[in-house]
Design brief:
Blueprint lengths: L1 H16 L5 E8 L3 E8 L4 E9 L3 E11 L5 E9 L2 E9 L1
Antiparallel strand pairs: 1-2, 2-3, 3-4, 4-5, 5-6
């Protein structure tokens, strides 16, 4: 469930831009007990996420995504997710 929330947060960055873009870089590695993926688009959207299973049911996830708003502000979100929830840190710059 928490993994889905984190994934949706990353997809939000793509939807927020509301424009078409080409993929500049993309990678993904999915295993039974860990994963990582990332992408970068021509419209300055970038995302990276990795996680690993700790114990039988607990995913520990960390990642970041960034984008430029329509008014030109750069937004970067770094986060972790664990049994205690989603923990984002948002940075804004001109």
């Amino acid at each position: 469930m928490k993994f889905s929330i984190v994934l949706l947060a990353c997809l939000f960055a793509v939807a927020f831009a509301n424009e078409e873009a080409d993929v500049v870089k993309e990678f993904r590695e999915v295993n039974t007990e860990d994963f990582k993926y990332g992408y970068e688009l021509t419209n300055k959207i970038r995302a990276f996420q990795e996680g690993h299973l700790e114990g039988e049911k607990t995913w520990l996830v960390k990642g970041e995504f960034e984008f430029v708003t329509k008014d030109g502000k750069h937004v970067k979100v770094t986060y972790t997710a664990d049994d205690y929830g989603y923990h984002p840190k948002v940075e804004h710059s001109e």
